[in-house]
Amino acid sequence: MSVKQHYDSHLGNFYSWMAGDFATQQQAQQAIFKQFKIKPPKNNIAVDLGCGHGLHAVSLANLGFSVVAIDFNKQLLQELKSNKGGLDIDVIEDDFTKFKTRILTAGLAVCMGDTIAHLPSVEVLLQLFKDVHERLEKRGKFIVSYRDYGVALTDEQRFIPARSDENQIHTCFLEYFADRVRVTDILHQKDGQGWKQSASSYYKLRLDRALVDELLEKAGFTIDTTENINRMWYCVAKKG
User: Fold this and answer.
1) C-alpha–C-alpha distance, residues 50 and 152, integer Å
2) What is the DSSP pairing of strand 45-49 with strand 106-111?
3) Percent of the chain at pLDDT above 70?
4) Which residues contact residue 166 at a Cβ distance below 8 angstroms, ignoring those fewer than 6 apart?
5) How far apart are CA 194 and CA 227, in angstroms?
6) pTM
7) DSSP of 35-87
């Protein structure tokens, strides 16, 4: 199943619940941007690639950016439209790798939440990095966050509890291959008949920090800051 099919038919229906309380998570993301001293340059346009339901787009708009937010999932974009209120966020339904048709230049681009791993190949990821570099103004910044899959989890470690409450339980199961990780999202939902299970799988690129840094540098970026926050790598790269 493709990534889009997986989100459209399964994960998009409960992603925002899985992510947790929007206001709490959004403030946490905004704090990370502040930690990296992100503020609008002269060109205050920010592009949020794979924006989801808006944790990062809302945070950037709160910091003074005019945000172009792009995602292919209707469910999450509808939630973003509700979450953004009156903020300056242009919501676009599209494959985020096609963002060049939407903007000429930007001061900042972000691709957060392990979204870069959703691309079908390393070659496509490198092209995305090159496209972002091309569209950024001089000294513009590109922020990516991702999980390092370099070391394979084994046995029961491959079952990752994502979130649960009295009515739903979400578990991720990971299977490691040479260049990819197969992710199965398993959801148990409680109804009047008991518990019902649904599941769907898709593939992520098996990225690690060395590979992401290498691709960013090949695309022309200089690595400014790389930090691990809550088991997620955050990289701030600059265009010279």
Assistant:
1) 26
2) parallel
3) 100
4) 190
5) 43
6) 0.95
7) HTT----SS-EEEEET-TTSHHHHHHHHTT-EEEEEES-HHHHHHHHHHTTTS
